[in-house]
Amino acid sequence: MRRLMMGLAATTLILGSCTQDDVTEVNAKVDGIGFEIGTGKTKADVVKIGDLENSAGFNVFATQGTNTTNFIENKAYHFESGEWKWKADDQKWPTDNAGYPINFYAHYPIGNHNLTAGLKEDITVLKSPADQIDYLAAKHENVVARPISNKVTLNFKHMLSKIDFQVVTGPTRTTIVQSIKIKNVGDTRKFDYKALSWMTGDNQLADNSIIHPYLKVGDGVKEFAGNVTPLAINPCSKSLMPMPQNLVARAWDGTLDVSEKTVTTPDAWTYTSQAYIEVVYRVYETATGKDVIGYGLANNHPDWANIGPKAQSAYNGKPLYVVVGYPLPNEFWEMGIGYTYTIYLGTNDASGGILMDDRYVDGDGEFVNIAVIDPDTEEPIDPEEPIVDTTKGIGFIVSVTDWTEEGAEEIK
Asked: Which residue has the higher pLDDT, 66 or 137?
């Protein structure tokens, strides 16, 4: 079968301009336990001090001395009537040395928590960016006496990872992206509040039903014309907030023609499991409007006359898109780290993508009974085949950056 000679690659770059930190001091009553809070940002609508003040607050757990039961059990600390306070009964400092040391553990946002022994909890991340929450956790251990200020510092850390995408389309081509999803990654794992980290080897699920839409049908297609530098698809808004986890890349079936030789699963295309990025898009030459992949008008497809009057009526004058997959690398999404994947669409010097279905999809993301073909040769491209210059392999270059967590400071 004919492989279309166009390319796509993905590169992971450092997340830049949308991160900063907010700090404040949270006032306490004279003899009540209070907190100083430091927190960073992870997306455009990330948690900041104002969000904490306008929310239901955060949960606090605390252990005391050698007691086996919690000194503070899932209490809410929140902002009300211009001050921070405990939502229920005020929590007092112990008056004798036997009540120390105290270890404090906190989680934002407020919610129901089912902590097991050792302050561990199973957490499930929601699938859609519109629903995902910037989870934060903090601890302050070994408080051996009541502080003079009655306050202890809670430096919250971002519990999840952060994913963004940007596009390079090349100097002569226009790319229209309809949707982007990360598919088949885990959504549940156990968090250890004492270690302030996710537990390894525990509940790292690879559920094939998990789909995280970064850009979805209904958001409106994103068009990129002639850009040779990366452009953000949704700059600084609604990033994906997936579960930190080991990624195991999707295995692609089929064979590839490499240098006129048929090679079964060559090293450059050998992947061991299921995680991948799905992109629905089309590409055309900006100057001429000539399709490179997909069709600007379904009625330009060479099989148009054979698809029947019902399909012709439904798709006349409408564009057709392809569904392709790009294996995620075998790596680890780490807690509190942002990843930006740069996707090269329509450039001649990049690798391609794997065709996920031999049918096009319409503007609503629904499959249509029209075969994906190479517009130049009008030959079909089969599923599991690369839409690619086969001398090039899919590659990722990965660099990451930590968010800097600032200590709490008094704001006067």
From this structure: 137
- Distance, in Å, from the CA atom of 214 to the CA atom of 238, rounded to the nearest integer, reads 8
Tell me, what's the pLDDT at 352? 58
* pLDDT, the chain, mean: 74
How do residues 121-172 score in pLDDT, each as one tens digit?
A: 988 888 878 788 888 898 999 999 988 888 888 888 889 988 888 888 888 8
| Total-model pTM | 0.78
